[in-house]
Design brief:
Keywords: Lyase, Magnesium, Metal-binding. The protein has a single domain, classed as Farnesyl Diphosphate Synthase (Orthogonal Bundle), CATH 1.10.600.10. 60% of the residues lie in helices and 0% in strands. The chain contains 17 helices and no strands. α5 packs antiparallel against α7.
Amino acid sequence: MQATGYGVPESELPADRWGHDPLTGAGPGRDADDAMAVRATVVIPQLYCPIPAAPHHETAGIERRVVEWMARFGFCDNDFHHAQVLANRTAEWACRIAPDGSSRLLQIGADWSCLGLLLDDVYLDGGLFSRHPERFLPMAVQVIHGADHPETTDGGKADPYTVAFGEVSYRYRRHATGTVVRRWVDGVAEWFLAACVGMGQRASGTVPSLEEYFVIGPRDRGTKASIAVIEMAEGTSLPSEESETPRIRALTQVASALVTFANDVYSYHREVKEQSLESNLVGILEHELRVPPQEAMTRAAALHDRLMCLYLALRERIARRATPEVRCYLGQLDHFIRGNLDYSAVSPRYRDDPGAAPDPAPAFGVWADSPSDGSLEPLPLRTVAWWWDQLSPAA
């Protein structure tokens, strides 16, 4: 089976990643070529993350099986696909964000993550449908249906992405609670919806505001589905009565924003080449504040650090009277944040040449000793100001 994707002839598969019109300007008064040159010199700053790393599983066996699993669906038949599969190193990601998971269940999370990242590479931010939500929506609905009802993906007629999502769903349903499986399926749907918003904005030449990006960005990174993957890997299920409280919802959103913004910082140079800065925090700050790229990067790191301080303060307040299930969930969010940072620091995916051989030496990952912005004052943004309200004893 050749993984050409839903409705896409093989001739349209990319030979390389880079080939779209750029977000214009690198601050006022610069043309596109100047902007690219200036952005190429941006230095990635140290981020503040006092959350300790957790010991994790050996990844080599899981990684080998990820590649074998992807090959079964034809995702390694194309040279570009194969290089991306090797560069993703999703066993590292799954084992770092869910260090208490079993090897068998971590395997499912690593398989799904590799599948999702490949779909992202081929179709989404810098891919074939990056400016065509009308082309992605039919594929998205079929893939969501496959995840929701894996019984319908048998028979060999479905698109390979739909079949692979269905198989992941089938394996999860044998081990996880219905509550967590539902969170994962809903998270996938949420990811695709947010991705379509980004495609539409690229097509129309618009860039989201920072306030809008707080809503779109974490959903576009599939953070809800990723947190469900941690619960499934570790065999837990936070009751909905707990997960739906304002403080837990706020803490979950802060954690999701931290993961998103750290990814944006670390993947900045990759997305400069993809010319997809419309969905990157640094590009959004550059556009909204009309500042040069390096200053936008500095402000993005400061925003990350400010959210880290909020996360730590809110987490401490919740932990004071937490049930055992909530305490477990707090630890899982810690691992999500720190594990994602550590993964991003070593993954070839976030280096200048994602097709290069895996390199164990971190490209990033030297943490700042203190936050560049440690304020606990709420951001003046309507969609997120309520997060800081949850620090109040009256909340």
